[in-house]
Specification:
By secondary structure, the protein is an alpha/beta fold. Helices cover 46% and strands 18% of the residues. The chain contains seven helices and five strands. A five-stranded parallel β-sheet has the order 3-2-1-4-5, with helices on both faces. Helix 6 packs across helix 7. It is globular, with a radius of gyration of 21 Å. Bound molecules: 4'-phosphopantetheine (PNS).
Length: 200
C-alpha cells in the first residue's frame, strides 16, 4: 500500500482552514470584544476580511473612513486580516470576495435569537455560505458598541472596553478640546527650550 503523504500537525490553536471568511458588522466603534473575535478568527481562517456595513440606517458616531482606520490600526499585526466595506446584501459581498464562511460573535443567549435568524436568512439567500459563531473572552461578554457609545457620551470611563486607540478617538470625537490640549502638551517642551536658549 502506498504510504500516505506526511501531514504537518497544525500549530496549537490553529485549525488551518483554507479559504476566506467574512466578518461583517457595524463596528461603531470597534470594541475589545470585536478585536478578540478577529484575533480568534485569524487563527482559524486562512484570510479574514472584516467588512464594515456602509449603508446602515442608524446614524453612526464614526464615519466609515474613521472605523476603517481604527480597524486597520488595531489589526496591523495580523497579516491575514484585511479591512473592507460593503453595501447592500452581505451574502452578495461574501460571494464577490469568494468568502466561504461568515464569522459572527455570540456573547450571550440574548444574541442567539437575532444571530440565528440572520444566519438562517443568509442561508436562504445563499445556501453555500456557512455562518460560523465564535465566543469572545467572557470578560467581554457584556461589551457592545452601543453601550460603549452610551457610556462615553455620558462622560463615563471606557477603559478596558475598547482598545486605547479607540478610547482616544472617542475622547477626540466627544471633546474636540482634548485634541487641542494634546497638541499644546506636545508643543510645551519645545517652547520652554526656545525660551531657555534666548536667555543663554
Ligand atoms: O454589528 P452589527 O450591526 O450587528 O452587524 C449587522 C450586519 C451588518 C452584519 C447585518 O445588518 C448585515 O449583514 N447587513 C447587511 C444587509 C443584509 O445582508 N441583510 C440581511 C441579513 S439577514
Amino acid at each position: 500500500m502506498p504510504a500516505l503523504p506526511a501531514r504537518r500537525a497544525p500549530k496549537r490553536g490553529r485549525l488551518n482552514n483554507k479559504g476566506t471568511a467574512l466578518y461583517p458588522g457595524s463596528f461603531d466603534p470597534p470594541t475589545n470584544g470585536h478585536l478578540d473575535l478577529i484575533q480568534r478568527g485569524s487563527k482559524i481562517f486562512e484570510e479574514l476580511v472584516v467588512a464594515i456595513l456602509r449603508n446602515s440606517e442608524k446614524s453612526p458616531m464614526f464615519s466609515v473612513a474613521e472605523r476603517s482606520e481604527m480597524l486597520r490600526v488595531l489589526t496591523a499585526d495580523l497579516p491575514n486580516v484585511r479591512i473592507d466595506t460593503f453595501d447592500g446584501l452581505m451574502v452578495e459581498h461574501a460571494k464577490s470576495i469568494e468568502a466561504t464562511c461568515v464569522l459572527r460573535g455570540i456573547r450571550a443567549i440574548s444574541d442567539y435569537e437575532y444571530e440565528l435568524q440572520m444566519a438562517l436568512m443568509n442561508r436562504k439567500l445563499e445556501p453555500t455560505l456557512e455562518t460560523v459563531f465564535m465566543m469572545p473572552a467572557d470578560k467581554y461578554s457584556y461589551v457592545s458598541s452601543r453601550l460603549v457609545r452610551e457610556v462615553a457620551q455620558a462622560g463615563g470611563p471606557v477603559k478596558g472596553l475598547v482598545p486605547e486607540f479607540v478610547e482616544r478617538k472617542l475622547r477626540e470625537k466627544l471633546d474636540p478640546a482634548y485634541k487641542l490640549g494634546e497638541a499644546r502638551i506636545l508643543e510645551e517642551p519645545r517652547r520652554r527650550t526656545r525660551r531657555r536658549k534666548k536667555k543663554a
